[in-house]
């Protein structure tokens, strides 16, 4: 005769409990098991562990100064530059006849000297070659004659960092009264305004001033514009801006105070007239190039570009 065992208290309760109670009892012991960590993120993502990208280093900013007879002002302009807005200052002396070199040697700058005078445009070419060779992402060209307030450099750089502009100019002419009160001669004010209006119409721009000695360029601009084909004279600046417009770069400006005084360098009326004529001639060449009447090296980034040569006839002090 088979032995019948009496049901335990738990089995008796289970037999009389409803289906929901029985189901909960069935999984009651699972609470004592170790829990799995929760799933975070997208479970469909690639399970392969990927290295985290290194943070992007800040852009390298180099300030260049094409110096000529700037002994009276170069120390003051360097003192005004905010120390946190640049990585290096390069001063290129174009055979100054004063003690510019001696003063620059006492300053926290990298000094380069030309063995012979290369001209204003030739001096800038050396500045840009050196800046590019030293890894500049942004280049600030600043005249060392103290006509431009160096304190606005960080604001100009930020416009390039935000990719609002590729080129920034310092505009000294916000109002007629301010320009004249700052010491700008009336004849130069009229010539500057008149030539700027013509240039804006021809280039389709709306700049307050085309003839500024305070400029900020991105590296891409300097690598694209064939500045080696430009003049070594003062018209270099006008040619460079027309080239920037031709290659589709965004050009803007910011206001800077006007500073005209005896120590500030300035070209005479005859040279200014030559500069104006050469500037208008540059626009004529550009319009002819765009109309395909001619093919001019100023506006050809590759085929007709002059051979790139390192700075010659100089030494680094």
User: Which strand order spans the largest sheet, edge to edge or round the barrel?
Assistant: 7-5-6-4-1-2-3-8
CATH class: Alpha Beta
N/C terminus separation? 116 Å
Please mark out the parts with pLDDT under 50 across 5 or more consecutive residues, or reply none: 6-17, 41-45
Number of strands: 8
Helices, strands, pairings?
Blueprint: H1 9-16, H2 19-26, E1 61-67, H3 74-80, E2 88-93, H4 100-104, E3 110-114, H5 119-133, E4 138-142, H6 153-161, E5 167-171, H7 176-181, H8 186-203, E6 214-218, H9 219-224, H10 236-246, E7 251-255, H11 269-290, E8 314-316
Parallel strand pairs: 1-2, 1-4, 2-3, 5-7
Antiparallel strand pairs: 3-8, 4-6, 5-6
What does this structure look like?
The chain has 11 helices and 8 strands. It is an alpha/beta fold. The chain has one domain (61-299): Alpha-Beta Complex (Spore Coat Polysaccharide Biosynthesis Protein SpsA, Chain A), CATH 3.90.550. An 8-stranded mixed beta sheet has the order 7-5-6-4-1-2-3-8, sandwiched between helices. Helix 10 packs parallel to helix 11. It is globular and about 65 Å long. The model is unreliable at 6-17 and 41-45 (pLDDT under 50).
């Amino acid at each position: 005769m088979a032995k019948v065992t009496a049901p335990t208290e738990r089995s008796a309760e289970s037999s009389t409990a409803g289906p929901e109670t029985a189901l909960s009892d069935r999984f009651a012991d699972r609470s004592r098991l170790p829990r799995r960590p929760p799933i975070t993120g997208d479970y469909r993502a690639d399970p392969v562990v990927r290295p985290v990208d290194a943070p992007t280093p800040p852009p390298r900013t180099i300030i260049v100064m094409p110096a000529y007879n700037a002994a009276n002002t170069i120390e003051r302009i360097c003192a005004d530059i905010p120390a946190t807005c640049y990585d290096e200052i390069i001063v290129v002396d174009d055979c100054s006849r004063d003690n510019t070199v001696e003063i620059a040697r006492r300053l926290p700058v990298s000094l380069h000297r030309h063995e012979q005078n290369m001209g204003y445009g030739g001096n800038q070419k050396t500045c840009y070659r050196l800046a590019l060779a030293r890894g500049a992402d942004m280049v600030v060209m600043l005249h060392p004659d103290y006509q431009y307030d160096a304190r606005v450099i960080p604001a100009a750089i930020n416009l390039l960092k935000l990719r609002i502009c590729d080129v920034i100019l310092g505009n000294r002419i916000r109002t007629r009264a301010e320009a004249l009160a700052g010491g700008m001669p009336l004849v130069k004010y009229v010539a500057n305004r008149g030539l700027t209006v013509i240039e804006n119409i021809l280039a389709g721009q709306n700049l307050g001033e085309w003839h500024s000695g305070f400029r900020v360029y991105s590296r891409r601009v300097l690598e694209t514009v064939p500045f080696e084909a430009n003049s070594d004279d003062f018209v270099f600046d006008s040619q460079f801006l027309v080239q920037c417009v031709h290659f589709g770069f965004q050009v803007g400006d910011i206001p800077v105070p006007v500073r005209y005084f005896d120590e500030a360098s300035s070209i005479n009326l005859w040279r200014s007239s030559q500069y104006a004529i050469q500037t208008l001639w540059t626009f004529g060449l550009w319009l002819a190039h765009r109309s395909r009447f001619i093919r001019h090296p100023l506006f050809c980034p590759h085929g007709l570009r002059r051979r790139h040569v390192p700075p010659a006839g100089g030494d680094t002090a």
